[in-house]
Design goal:
- The protein is an alpha/beta fold and 575 residues long.
- It contains 20 helices and 16 strands.
- The strands form 4 sheets. An 8-stranded mixed beta sheet has the order 8-9-13-12-11-10-14-15. Strands 2-1-3-4 form a 4-stranded parallel beta sheet, with helices on both faces. Strands 5-6 form a two-stranded antiparallel ribbon.
- Strand 5 and strand 6 form a beta hairpin.
- Helix 6 packs antiparallel against helix 7.
- Bound molecules: FE2/S2 (inorganic) cluster.
- FE2/S2 (inorganic) cluster binds next to loops.
Amino acid sequence: MSADDAKIGMKQGLVNYGDAEFSLFMRKAFIKAMGYSDDALERPVIGVVNTYSGYNACHRNVPELVDAIRRGVMMAGGIAVDFPVISIHESFSAPTSMFLRNLMAMDVEEMIRAQPMDAVVLIGGCDKTVPALLMGAASAGVPAILEVTGPMITGFFRGERLGACTDCRRMWGMHRAGELDAEEIADAGDRLMPTAGTCMVMGTASTMALMSEALGMMLPGGAAIPAVHADRLRHAEATGTRAVAMAAERLTPDQIMTPDAFANAFKMLLATGGSTNGLVHMTAVAGRLGIEVDLEALDKLSDEIPVLVDLKPSGQHYMEDLNNAGGAAPIMREIRQKLATDCLTVTGKTLGKNIDAAPADWGQQVVKTAADPIFPKGGIAVLRGSLAPNGAIIKQSAAAPHLMKHEGRAVVFDDLADMAERLDSPDLDVNADDILVLKNAGPKGAPGMPESGYIPIPRKLAQAGVKDMLRMSDARMSGTAFGTIVLHISPEAAEGGPLGLVENGDRIVLDVEARRLDLLVDEAVLAERRKGWKPVTHKGQERGYLKLYLDEVTQAEDGADFRFLMPARTGQSTP
Ligand code: FES
């Protein structure tokens, strides 16, 4: 066996028995039990990451995607071998899916590395799966291409079109305010998720899919095709075919995921008014390649790129409408002058060539022009100040204009349990002008940085008709949520950040225009409070994955990845 042969197909990455030919003999003998011929075993091997799980409704269509990918691989002369990894669904991953993202990324990296494959197709969809797959693939360094499960199509409730999960939240809010009774909310619950696929608004799954296409890791057109459309299967088939060519070309993730490519992804994030989670996740993916995200540069970019995509929660349409409007292509065409069009993509061609090859605009209504945008600036503003020395963000496109500059009295909740216990109490001392502050909901505090930044309006205010008020925390927020909400405050309360020192009645001032978030309390008073501050503790924190997580997780500005999984910085930054 020559050294070159050893790197191809089943011959690569042999198990260490001390005799390479025996290792290959054993491997082939075992895999022949799967019914493969010698001819099949001589072909390039395309691994297919199978993220089907009975707990993951967003991945219900993964088995048929695997079939379509397998077909595409065979048409190109390879063999496809699917394998399982951890699959994470938002509603079935306690305490929060984000707690498990890094575990999934480790699983993906190590199983790609451990098993023989010349390229790998990554099947993801639900929020944390796509970042985990890209993080793992970036670290493993094997040619990789992404296929997403695709969005759900919309459902209807009594004549009204519904989208998960913006309308889940809106309708639950109506139920809390007494506008929908128990029977009506149960009926709505039957109709909010009518098909396989991911949430069909501009939530995290949609955001990550569109960012991944702009990043160059997905074949063109793949981000928005609904999960149940035949086009989704054709896209998967083409992905399988292309994976075989990528194996031959040795087109590895580091050649595609460059600082300019990440900048393209962030421009897509801003133009879509996408989920703030897109920032944390793509920061973690970039970090796997030693690339740092420059929050100030991102904020400047936000001034240049308006929100163009008219999707809920910032707008009115859904992902199937974006697909009917041409998917990612019309968005990229509209911001083309801002994109680095010479970035290489999984097609083997540049992003610019991919955009050129997309069908011309046919007069759609979903992607607006830069001259007539949904929101004149990008969706995300980066804040700093005495309450957030290392940064915080606000999704300004989903915020109320009258609260963008606001000073108010803090109404503080020490943690999620405290908030759950007191938020709806008729005795809670709170007014619509106050600022709701949630502590200990960051990476270490919760733990897992859950999507609890969308602090509900206290019941007595909701019943009085209050629809929005200024809220802030070290947590994340689902991209399907909306409101004037400051997120990702860093350092988090549990890391000793100033957020942990805020007390009821303190004055806080937010000024989005000036990009400031300040706690109006004297430093001497804070120093006194700091003497009595203690970090939160968690049951079971002495062992297992929780210990690893608490010891190693970084803050939001580093993507909340594990320190030991991040290589040394290369000195490159993005956007
Ligand atoms: Fe899976 Fe929304 S819960 S994408």
